[in-house]
Amino acid sequence: MGGVQFEEEDVTEEPTSEAPETPEGEEPIKQRKNGLYPGVSDELAASMKSGWADTEQHDLEPLAQAPHTARRRAALSARFPGDRLVIPAGNLRTRSNDTDYSFRASTEYAYLTGDQTEDGVLVMEPEAGGGHTATLYLLPRSDRENGEFWLDGQGELWVGRRLSLTEAEKRLGLPARDVRKLADELRGATGPVRVVRGHDAGLEAALTDKVTGERDEELRVFLSEQRLVKDEFEIGQLQAAVDSTVRGFEDVVKVLDKARATSERYIEGTFFLRARVEGNDVGYGTIAAAGPHATTLHWVRNDGPVRSGDLLLLDAGVETTTLYTADVTRTLPVNGTYSPLQRKVYEAVYEAQEAGIAAVRPGAKYRDFHDAAQRVLATKLVEWGLVEGPVERVLELGLQRRWTLHGTGHMLGMDVHDCAVARTETYVDGTLEPGMCLTVEPGLYFQPDDLTVPEEYRGIGVRIEDDILVTEDGNRVLSAALPRTADDVEAWMARLTG
Ligand code: GLY
Ligand code: MN
Ligand code: MN
Predict the structure, then answer these.
(1) Top mutation candidate among 417, 440, 464 for ligand 1, by most atoms within 8 Å of CB
(2) Tens digit of pLDDT for each residue in 243-293?
(3) Is 465 in the pocket of ligand 1 (CB under 6 A)?
(4) Ranges of H-type helices in 114-164
(5) How many domains does the chain have?
(6) CB 169 within 8 A of CB 115
(7) C-alpha 156 – ligand 3 centre gap (Å)
(8) What's the 412 CA to ligand 1 centre distance in angstroms?
(9) In 142-200, where do the E strands start and end?
(10) Whose CA, among 107, 166, 201, 321, lies 20 to 30 Å from 54?
């Protein structure tokens, strides 16, 4: 490959912001977004080309999940014979000016490949005799000859070393090719194509005349439903995510006094620190909601005060490096002891959660745990005189929902709300099977401005959320290490802070 012809210039002049020219027929190097390049002398250009060690890794082991990703691709292949399937990882997204959000590969891509690098694309090419050949398209290592590695915004000198295509093949168990050739290859391809939309606009643009919304949606739905039942590897990852989350909750309890002197952000930061020190991330924005903020379901601003006497609703989940996330909520008394009314509401939610968890077993309808929990909550609301009974009337009209607000749970996996585009008949109207993992998370929320409840209730929000695996004979609470009863929560807090 011919190198970039760097500008002929007098290096004694002021540096210029002009980029090196690109030889005809070559893709231009994508410039760093601010484009402020100093001039490059021939000597510097020549120097940058050489003197670098060969770092190719020859002894890479396949990823632990490689056998699982192969099985998942085989199931995908069987579902769409004869179609070319395109599953992109997605691209970096600008946060501001020339900074990007941290990259998170699309769930579909990571599930099928084990890879998580930006711009990657899995292509399943149909074979004449049936089945597909899976190929991973990746950005290769940066070229040093043409200066790409230090002059391009995606050059390895800026963003870090990538796997070579050969290394990627060893690690992921798939043939790997240069992704920069893919759009042209796809433009020239014949036959039906399906792409997972929403991740890579450039690739979609190259496919506009080959794909249909309906076919693409079928692919997306299949990939969502494929994840309803987790394999052994996934269950292990989910348990690891939950275990780390438990440690994060313990960390938060230990610093509640410091949070009282600052804000909910101290709690968010403490939980995030646990995720990071263990090499992980969080699977969604931590909800650190103290006092009346607990009544806002997705309170992620986390900029409010943490006051003694208030409740803290902490909804947080560590996401493993393999992208499996926990989703756990505890509602804790900031000063370590529930007030009588806080305890009354908490124990009602606990009772609802117990009823919900008891309804999680293979063969049960997905809706059963929701119905069981809602019945308990409706009964409590009637008992407390907040809504007129009988309970059957309340449930039929859904009147309890003014205070229960959300569904009692959801599938959990690589996405916190996993399998979100599965069809109603396989998910919400479906039947639980061993290997499914879901949350059970009833709550009661009395808004600060809710004039229909006595004043003392206003501003109280309680949710208890655990992660449950459906087993062959019932269920396993993956987050059982965190205490749930009001007494156990108080004792646990006393132990951690005492
Ligand atoms: N953390 C969001 C949820 O519980 O669904
Ligand atoms: Mn949840
Ligand atoms: Mn949650």
Answers:
(1) 417
(2) 999 999 999 999 999 999 899 999 999 999 999 999 999 999 999 999 999
(3) yes
(4) 148-151, 156-159
(5) 2
(6) no
(7) 37
(8) 10
(9) 176-178, 193-195
(10) 321
Cβ(264) to ligand 1 under 6 A? no
Q: How far is the CA of 445 from the centre of ligand 3 (A)?
A: 15
pTM of structure: 0.92
Residue 4 lies in a domain: no
Neighbouring CB atoms inside 10 A of 51's CB total 7
Tell me, yes or no, whether 365 and 244 share the same domain.
yes
Q: Which domain holds residue 444?
A: 232-497
Convert the pLDDT of each residue in 114-158 to its tens digit: 999 999 999 999 999 999 999 999 999 998 888 889 988 889 999
- 127 C-alpha to ligand 1 centroid (Å): 42
Assess whether 343 and 450 both reside in one domain.
yes
360 and 317 in one domain?
A: yes
Going from the Cα of 40 to the center of ligand 1, the distance in angstroms, rounded, reads 52
* pLDDT at residue 40 in the model: 83
Q: Are 36 and 60 in contact (CB under 8 A)?
A: no
pLDDT at residue 190 in the model: 87
Q: How confident is the model at residue 39 (pLDDT cuts 50, 70, 90)?
A: confident
> Which CATH number fits the domain that encloses residue 260?
3.90.230.10
- Ligand 1 atom 5 nearest Cα: 417
Considering the domain architecture, whether residues 248 and 100 belong to the same structural domain is answered as: no
Task: Quote the CA–CA distance of 172 and 83 in Å, as a whole number.
Answer: 23
Instruction: Give yes or no for a contact between 245 and 318, defined as CB atoms under 8 angstroms apart.
Output: yes
Q: Is the CB of 327 under 6 A from ligand 1?
A: yes
Q: Do 242 and 222 have their domain in common?
A: no
Do residue 435 and residue 316 come from a single domain?
yes
From the alpha carbon of 284, which atom of ligand 1 is closest?
Answer: 1
Ligand 1 atom closest to residue 329's alpha carbon, by position in its atom list: 4
Mean per-residue pLDDT, 438-449 = 98
Q: Treating both helix axes as pointing N-terminal to C-terminal, what angle do 340-358 and 486-497 enclose, rounded to 10 degrees?
A: 110
